[in-house]
Write a structure and sequence with these properties.
The protein is of the alpha+beta class. It has one domain: TBP-like, CATH 3.30.2030. It has 4 helices and 9 strands, in the order H-H-E-H-E-E-E-H-E-E-E-E-E. Strands 1, 2, 3, 4, 5, 6, 7, 8 and 9 form a 9-stranded mixed β-sheet that branches. The relative contact order is 0.21.
Length: about 190
Amino acid sequence: MTGHRKATVAALLSLIPLRGRSIMDKSGLKRVAKPSKVRRKLGYTPEVRPVRQAEDEVNQMSSRLVDAMGIPGNPSHIPAAAGPCDAIDPDFTTYYRVDHPWALWEADPDDFDTAMENLRSRLPGMGWRITKDGPMNSRARNPEIMAVHTTSGHRVAIRALKTRSGDLKPQMDVTLISPCYQAPEGTDLSRA
């Protein structure tokens, strides 16, 4: 994971209401939070949802974001994937969230301002509330939009990386993260 990708995920996770990183038992082994503590730690009760359904929803949201940008380019073909909901189940046994980091490649950097302006005007109509719209906290000061979906709780960070270090080409960079879900009983998350 690249440095800016880690920073994006960390920034998005900081927007999800969490009050602890993991639960430890007396032996120091990690375990799943008790249902009575899950809501308190997350600020919401995770919906029971099959993993594939949650991943498909995130992939569809990403497709709509590409369309909302309204510029030509090729989205990376990395599918959304389930991972641990660290605050309540760091061992990835019962609760999960879906992450989808992707980029729009081969887009003309001259179109990035258009993409960001399109997102500013279109995201609210798509159910997103913009929580940040301004330059990244970096030397390049590339533009960044962060938003939360008002009904589903998904979070997104979209960055127009016009200026990048070294020989890295410009790209539109997107990280989409779902809220935490509870896997249906009998689900083996290690095989999901």
